[in-house]
Amino acid sequence: MSTETSASVQTGTPPATKGGRLPVAGRAEVRRSFARLLLSEKFRVLSAVGLHLVAAAAAAVAPLLLGEIIDHLAAGGGVAGVDRLAVGMAAACIAVVLFTWAGTFVAHRLGERLSAHMREQFVDRCLRLPMPVVERAGSGDLMTRSSADVPEAGNLFRDGVPQVTVSGLKVLVFLGAMLWVSPLLGMCMLVAVPPITIGTRWYLKRARHGYLREREAESEIGDTIAASADGARTTGAYRLEDRRRRAGDDTVATSWAAVRHTLFLRSVFFPFLDGSYALPTAAVLIVGGACYFEGVVSLGMVASCAVLTRQIMFPLDHILVWVERIQRGAAALARIEGVAEVEGAEDGATDERPVDGTVELRDVRYAYPNGGDVLHGVSLTVPAGERFAVVGPSGAGKSTLARLISGVDAPREGTVRIGGVDVAALPLDERRRRVNLVTQEHHVFTATLRDNLALADAGADDEELRSALAAVGADWAFDLPEGLDTRLGGTARELDAASAQQIALARIILADPDVVILDEATSMLDPRAARDTERALGAVLAGRTVIAIAHRLHTAHDADRIAVVERGIVAELGGHDELIARDGHYADLWRAWHGEPATRRGTDSG
Ligand code: ATP
Predict the structure, then answer these.
(1) What angle do CA 242, 248, 251 make, to 5 degrees?
(2) Which residues, other chains included, contact 420 with Cβ-Cβ below 8 Å and sequence gap of 6+?
(3) Per-residue pLDDT for 582 more than 80?
(4) Confidence at residue 492, expressed as pLDDT on a 0 to 100 scale
(5) Which of 10, 71, 154, 513 could disulfide-link to 115, CB 3.0 to 4.6 Å?
(6) What percent of the chain has pLDDT over 90?
(7) Fold match between 19-344 and 385-398+428-563+573-593?
(8) Measured distance CA(219)–CA(229) in Å, rounded
(9) What is the pLDDT of residue 596?
(10) Residue ranges of the alpha helices (H) in 473-559?
């Protein structure tokens, strides 16, 4: 995203799992989140359960009446009695159809709503994810979670929950009907319990890990493809095609092994279940036959129970089939819920609020993961409202400094304060409101120009949007055929990098933060336009603290003060004229920028 609103703070190690991947929620958290979602729709849940309960009760009536008909005929009853019972059966069948239809309708609406809640929650959480966490996790992981896990978990809500609830109710009602007809024959169902329990436990014990592994492997494929696509030019230039192909083959092989494992689990589990289903019917017929000859039960009772055992098997089968899909859905939900753990862990909690836009760094040291320090004890104070420039050679640590000030990263040692408050301790929303970082990477969303700007301030009116565009010199925006309603990005109007950069700068004006950090934010504009834009921006942002990481030294020239950063320390600090007079690092940079040889005469300071 272009306006890199100071995304986050790392308070210790973020809860990303191996390889920096986003965390996966535990079973208890998945259950809690599931219950929370169900509770948010309790009225619909109760309606769906009620309607299906009536449908299941009506479905149990037919076998019971069948038994009545048999007993009626066995007792020498007439056709009139059979007709009466047959009418009852027909009425029960109509009730089954009507209540199942109504229950399914309510259940599917419920499923869609739960799925929508989950999606909205996920999008909210993704937008609040700290940038370093996303960087470490890799875009593939987040992409797979949103493109594969969200639909999978959506299926769980849309189909899984209704199917399992309905089937569970049917099993209970049919079992109740069997026990009511004959407790002895009803008990015959128990013969299916041991094999089904053993089989299901065996499967469940392995399935969660299997499906999580399958999902993780998909993320790895996503990462590898994204990396190959992003670095296609480099791959071509250095002839790395074979290496990229091998990396792709390796991830596909890992994924294939994971898929084969879950396939193996299914190929054992389902045939085993099919075998278990035959047992209760056989038991009812054997026990029922023996009892009939003993005169304990009637022929009609045996027939009713035999039909009910067959009827129970359909919903039971449904439940067990769904056990498999629920495992997949639960694995997906665990990955979706895992995102919440990052959000909670990285959000600061102080009640203190910055009093102004003063930026203070005290003895700040920072190292990237698996690397040595790139900042070696930087101390700086930028008073509120100052226009401050940071210059220095490539790799000196300027962008790192920008990330620390904006709270994207936290220092390994030392403190970064805004208006007297530790940036790390500020809640995420507050940080985003107070400090904005604009880098040279800009994203134009596939949406109207108005929507692209309103990201920074949803309440801004057209006049405010237009004046923000004017302030950054985006004159092209006023010539657009549909004005602010012109669609940008995607297959609509493609903007060049300079125009995209202007949109990012206009967002800054609309967001109106206390502190603005511009990290090569005008690098895509031509030098004259860049200087004009910076001056216009400076006028609009007057009173805000503006820290500009400058490659073009005219930015430094226009600033109130300049820090020269070299090898992770502040080597010089002062105004343009002062630093030129000092004839140190800055004077060298200034001469080099003007194409003169570097002939430093003064001494270093800082
Ligand atoms: P440039 O002007 O080229 O952008 P810079 O002064 O902004 O350079 P930084 O980008 O802050 O310098 O980099 C400082 C040091 O940290 C460099 O040695 C760089 O290689 C290293 N570095 C930067 N980003 C990362 C990263 N994500 N992981 C590891 N090391 C990094």
Answers:
(1) 140
(2) 352, 354, 355, 358, 360
(3) yes
(4) 67
(5) 154
(6) 24
(7) no
(8) 15
(9) 63
(10) 497-511, 527-540, 553-558
- How many residues in the chain? 606
b/e per residue 8-26 (b: at least 16 CB within 10 A): bbbeeebebeeebbbbbbe
Closest residue to atom 9 of ligand 1, CA basis? 397
> Is the CATH number 1.20.1560.10 carried by domain 19-344?
yes
Q: Which of 133, 136, 366, 374 to mutate to test the pocket of ligand 1 (most atoms within 8 A of CB)?
A: 374
Q: For the chain, which residues make up each domain, given as ranges?
A: 19-344, 385-398+428-563+573-593
Q: Per residue in 286-299, pLDDT tens?
A: 999 999 998 888 99
Q: Side-chain half-sphere of 302: how many Cα atoms within 13 Å?
A: 18
C-alpha 95/C-alpha 108 separation (Å) is 19
Q: Tell me how crowded residue 221 is: count the other CB atoms within 10 A of its CB.
A: 17
543 CB less than 6 Å from ligand 1? no
pLDDT band at 398 (very low <50, low <70, confident <90, very high): very high
What tens digit of pLDDT does each residue of 538-563 get? 777 788 899 999 877 888 888 899 99
For the Cβ of 440 lying below 6 angstroms from any atom of ligand 1, the answer is: no
Distance 128 CA to ligand 1 centre (A): 25
Beta strand spans in 386-540 (E): 387-391, 413-418, 421-422, 435-438, 447-448, 487-488, 515-519
Ligand 1 centroid from CA 398, angstroms = 8
Nearest CA to ligand 1 atom 2: 394
Provide the b/e sequence for 204-218 (b: ≥16 CB within 10 Å): eebbbebbbbbbbbb
Pocket mutation for ligand 1, best pick of 133, 366, 399 (most atoms within 8 Å of C-beta): 399
User: Counting atoms of ligand 1 from 1, which one is nearest the CA of 392?
Assistant: 6
Q: How many CA atoms lie within 13 A of 132 on its CB side?
A: 22
Contact 397 CB / ligand 1 (< 6 Å): yes
For the segment 535-540, the average pLDDT, to the nearest whole number, is 74
Cα distance between residue 457 and residue 455, in whole Å: 6
- The second-level CATH assignment, the architecture, of 385-398+428-563+573-593 is 3-Layer(aba) Sandwich (3.40)
Q: CA-to-CA distance for 130 and 211, rounded, in angstroms?
A: 27
Give yes or no for residue 591 having a pLDDT over 90. no
Task: Give the separation between CA 341 and CA 152, rounded to whole angstroms.
Answer: 20
The pLDDT, as a whole number, for residue 597 is 60
What's the pLDDT tens digit per position in 241-250? 888 889 889 9
CA 400 to ligand 1 centroid distance, Å: 6
- Tell me, rounded to whole angstroms, the distance of Cα 26 from its chain centroid: 16
